[in-house]
Write a structure and sequence with these properties.
Blueprint (H helix, E strand, L loop, with lengths): L2 H14 L8 E2 L1 H8 L3 H13 L3 E4 L3 E4 L4 H25 L2 H20 L3 H20 L4 H16 L12 H16 L3 H20 L2
Antiparallel strand pairs: 1-3, 2-3
Length: about 210
């Protein structure tokens, strides 16, 4: 992996870990300290961050981390819905029975754990199960361009500060239920039903984000 890519990954990890705040102004030297990368690597990653919309250059003020606002929330979820609706229809036709069974097992276990009691560890595993499921649907398209666009958009979706867009204790069971509805349609090899269940799930997440 090239140094600028390592710097990019380090930046996004710190961003998602809230070590960098949305809207924050940050210098190149602060980015060096934060990422642990050289100044050269940081300078090389900045154009990519700008292209991905994660940072922008403000005249006479320097670098500003992307801000989270209603427009970003709506745009990010709209793009997510467009990409995942296409991906789920393909996924239904190509995923193996063995993988479907594994997905069901993982989700049922995550749901059972949440019902028993939502600890930070249980919540983290449920959140990872959620993210892994959506990432896998996109990956099965086998389209690197879509995968790259989706991953960049996923950073924005996960960055949204509104707590309702993250896996809260009271949402863990309902999110797993929404996923299991999608998995049920996948088991039936029914693209239309899978797309409808996915859309219901993503719409629910979007509504929580914008507090509709």
């Amino acid at each position: 992996m090239k140094l600028r890519e390592q710097a990019y990954d380090a930046f996004t990890e710190n961003l998602l870990a809230r070590q960098i705040s949305p809207g924050q102004f940050i210098s190149q030297r602060e980015l060096v300290a934060l990422t642990g990368m050289s100044l050269g690597a940081v300078r090389e990653m900045i154009p990519r961050l700008e292209a991905d919309g994660l940072i922008r250059t403000v005249a006479q003020r320097g670098l500003q981390v992307m801000n989270v606002d209603m427009e970003l929330i709506r745009n990010a979820f709209q793009l997510r819905i467009i990409l995942e609706r296409e991906a789920i229809r393909h996924f239904v036709t190509v995923v193996s029975d063995e993988e479907i069974a594994a997905l069901r097992t993982a989700h049922e276990q995550a749901r059972a754990d949440a019902v028993s009691g939502v600890t930070p560890d249980v919540l983290a595993r449920a959140q990872q199960t959620d993210w892994d499921f959506h990432d896998r649907i996109i990956d099965m398209l086998g389209n690197e361009l879509i995968k790259t666009i989706y991953r960049t958009n996923a950073i924005k979706v996960r960055l949204i500060r509104n707590d309702d867009t993250r896996m809260l204790p009271e949402l863990a069971v309902s999110v797993m239920d929404e996923h299991l509805a999608i998995i049920k349609a996948i088991e039936s090899r029914a693209p239309e039903a899978a797309e409808a269940a996915l859309l219901a799930h993503l719409t629910s997440a979007k509504h929580r984000a914008v507090r509709i």
